[in-house]
Amino acid sequence: MNKQTLEHMKQLRLYGMYRAFDSSLSPQSINYTNDELIAYLLQSEWDDRQNRKIERLTKAARFRYSAVMEAIDFDASRHLDKNQIQRFASCEFIKQKQNILITGSTGAGKSYMASAIGHQACSLGYKVMYYNTNKLFTMLKTSKADGSYLKQINKLEKQDLLIIDDFGLKALDAINRHSFMEIIEDRHGEHSIIIASQLPVEAWHEIIGEQTIADAILDRLVHNAHRIDIKGESMRKKMKNKD
């Protein structure tokens, strides 16, 4: 009877429940009441599905770093508002359709922080996509050539959180400027975006180019954005000195 029940669970893809019920048959297992066993099986299936969902979301996001909020360095030299950053763990900013703009010098930990917030969003069930700026625009240019541009833009638009890293390493050309405007326009008031850059936000206008478009993009990005400016020495240099 138990073997048949286990087989049915497997066929129904109730993998969490299958493992829990299988372990409950062990002589060393807890002696559950009927109600406790049902609750245990349901909780195990729930947990298993949630974990698999988080794994799928995290894999789909393609993060640069495997980062966690708990590992962010709040050393005084970095001038970070710990309360502000820890509040991001709730991902309320995503519910509110707000943006986060992270700036700081090379190696300051911008990418790690953006990735940590992204990982946290995945753990709460949000769809996230991480892109290096150059790779994002290269992908979009290629998609224009092969006819998949609208498909790619729609995919970006559906993400609850889009992370664009290393923004501003080089000025945008006309094609990339148009694509960037389309991305920001699609997300404005609908979904959140995190942008990490070595350059201060005040310098982005020149990087975007063409005053009218730059004004429109920055107006949509900045007006409801949380801003983080990381100070202090390079984290990579700091870790190297510890070795």
Outline the fold blueprint.
Layout: H1 2-11, H2 15-24, H3 34-61, H4 82-87, H5 92-95, E1 99-104, H6 110-123, E2 128-132, H7 133-146, H8 149-157, E3 161-167, H9 174-187, E4 192-197, H10 204-208, H11 211-222, E5 225-230, H12 235-242
Parallel strand pairs: 1-4, 1-5, 2-3, 3-4
Keywords: ATP-binding, Nucleotide-binding
GO molecular function, one term: ATP binding
Domain AAA+ ATPase: 96-229
**Continuous helix count:** 12
- By CATH's scheme, which homologous superfamily of the largest domain applies? P-loop containing nucleotide triphosphate hydrolases
Distance between the termini: 59 Å
As laid out across the biggest beta sheet, the strand order is 2-3-4-1-5
Helical residues, percent? 55-70%
Question: What would you say this structure looks like, in words?
Answer:
There is one protein chain. The protein is of the alpha/beta class and 243 residues long. It is 55% helix and 12% strand. It has helices spanning 2-11, 15-24, 34-61, 82-87, 92-95, 110-123, 133-146, 149-157, 174-187, 204-208, 211-222, 235-242; strands spanning 99-104, 128-132, 161-167, 192-197, 225-230. The protein has a five-stranded parallel β-sheet. Helix 9 links the parallel strand 3 and strand 4 (192-197). Helix 1 runs antiparallel to helix 2 (15-24), helix 3 packs antiparallel against helix 6 (110-123) and helix 9 (174-187) runs parallel beside helix 11. The protein is elongated, with a radius of gyration of 23 Å. It starts with a helix and ends with a helix.
